[in-house]
Amino acid sequence: MEDSSRTLRRASTLSLAVLSGINLLNYLDRYVVSAVLPELKRAPLGLDDFQLGTLMSGFLIVYMLAAPLFGRLGDRGSRTRPIAIGVFLWSLATGLTGLARNYLQLLGARAAVGIGEAAYGTIAPSLLADHFPLRTRGRAFALFNMAIPVGAALGYIVGGLVEAHYGWRAAFFVAGVPGVALALWVWRLPDPPRGAQDESSGAATAPAAPAGSWRVYVKLLRQRAYLLTVLGYAAYTFALGGMAFWMPTFLERVRGVPGVTATAGFGEIVVVTGFLGTFAGGWLGDYCLKFSAQAYLWLSGWVTVLAVPATYLALASGTPWVFYGALTAAQLLLFMSTGPINTVIVNLVSPLERACAVALSVFVIHALGDVISPSIIGGISDASSLGIAVMIVPVAVALSALLWLFAARADRVAQRATNARSMT
Questions:
Q1: 9-192+208-414 belongs to which homologous superfamily?
Q2: Phi, psi for 173 (deg, rounded to 5)
Q3: What residues does each domain of the chain span?
Q4: The whole model's pTM is what?
Q5: Cα(82)–Cα(74) distance, rounded to whole angstroms?
Q6: CB 381 within 8 Å of CB 389
Q7: Which of 361, 421, 356 is nearest to 208 (CA)?
Q8: Predicted local confidence at residue 382, as pLDDT
Q9: What distance in Å separates the CA atoms of residue 40 and residue 106, rounded to the nearest whole number?
């Protein structure tokens, strides 16, 4: 029995490590684009700021449209094989980005990356949740999501350094290579039964619609706490995605920071604050579960409230020590929500609906979030200035905080109603 338990723990640890490694590569790939934006602007492709913004938007549109299809697949059959195929496809498309000769080829290659990432992004959280019990799931998701800031930072740093020495095309070649090895590795990961870690809590209840049915998405939209959580996540993604995409260019163009320094400096801030903030958020969320079943939502809401003035100051101040300090504080507070919110999304639904719940979340947060924010900021910048355009970011941060606080209250009311019915 002890040997079996030890084997399961090793399998869970290995799965967490591999899935986190892929998540890191996922975000490295996305933000290599941001690192080479100034060089792309100067390249003979003739791109304006709106077109540069659509490179991220085009990828995300395909990503969000493919997500519901993979969500259904992830709740019906194998989860490791679609992930492996997806990782291989996006790595191939990343390499092809470096071969683009015009705007349409560049946009098409980035859009193709979205198909592969949709397979991974929707199914991996469902797989991960079945490796860890509720009491430690927040920390597992925090470790998994630490790869987001680390990967994004590496995208800025690696992309900026490679571009500076070998050109922007080489940056995409470097980003695409590691995915092939990880695709082969994830193919062999264990795929535990759905809900294997939830029976003791009673969470593994049967869904109202058959697993993988389109009706699951309708049911999820009717769950008030889930819907408010995802809408808050969309506002958060709008803010974080827009800021992440444009910040190196903002620092260079508006604050006068040299290009390589801006890219590497912002990357260093992201990796440090992301690592510390995501870890702290996951640990605090699990700890606070002792006091409230809605701990993840309350924590996310209030730390995001604190992030609003820091985000505004980071974008409004022209004094280096002020805007760098405020940017560090804002990123730290914002990343504290990453693990808890992703844990909430899988905890609010049946284990048989988790891939669909993540898929619907992916669709909504990108459709209303970072699909549109880089282009909106780029469009406002073309009409006025980038300094004015980025001021939409703190407004979105404030909206996400309010929606998460409302979601916590809605879930508390729903749980009280459920408990009252069970006692009668």
A1: MFS general substrate transporter like domains (1.20.1250.20)
A2: -65, -45
A3: 9-192+208-414
A4: 0.75
A5: 8
A6: yes
A7: 356
A8: 86
A9: 11
Mean pLDDT of 22-31: 83
Q: Which among 381, 92, 124, 402 is positioned nearest to 250, based on CA atoms?
A: 381
Q: What is the residue type of 311? A: T
Assigned token pair, 424: 């009668």
pLDDT at 202: 40
CB of 193 closer than 8 Å to CB of 130: yes
Residue written as tokens 């927040």?
Answer: 138
Tens-place pLDDT, residues 58-102:
887 888 888 888 888 888 778 888 888 888 888 888 888 888 888
Is residue 306 very low, low, confident or very high in pLDDT (cuts 50, 70, 90)?
A: very high
Can you read off the two tokens belonging to residue 125? 């959280």
Residue 368 or residue 44, greater confidence: 368
Residue 229 has pLDDT above 80, yes or no: yes
C-alpha–C-alpha distance, residues 358 and 421, integer Å: 29
Evaluate whether 267 touches 156 at the Cβ level (below 8 Å): yes
Quickly tell me which residue has 């406002």 as its tokens: 380
SS (H, E, C) the chain: CHHHHHHHHHHHHHHHHHHHHHHHHHHHHHHHHHHCHHHHHHCCCCCCHHHHHHHHHHHHHHHHHHHHHHHHHHCCCCCHHHHHHHHHHHHHHHHHHCCCCCHHHHHHHHHHHHHHHHHHHHHHHHHHHCCCCHHHHHHHHHHHHHHHHHHHHHHHHHHHHHHHHHCHHHHHHHHHCHHHHHHHHHCCCCCCCCCCCCHHHCCCCCCCCCCCCCHHHHHHHCCHHHHHHHHHHHHHHHHHHHHHHHHHHHHHHCCCCCHHHHHHHHHHHHHHHHHHHHHHHHHHHHHHCCCCCCHHHHHHHHHHHHHHHHHHHHHHCCCHHHHHHHHHHHHHHHHCCHHHHHHHHHHCCCHHHHHHHHHHHHHHHHHHHHCCHHHHHHHHHHHCCHHHHCCHHHHHHHHHHHHHHHHHHHHHHHHHHHHHHHHC
What φ, ψ does residue 234 adopt, rounded to 5°?
A: -65, -45
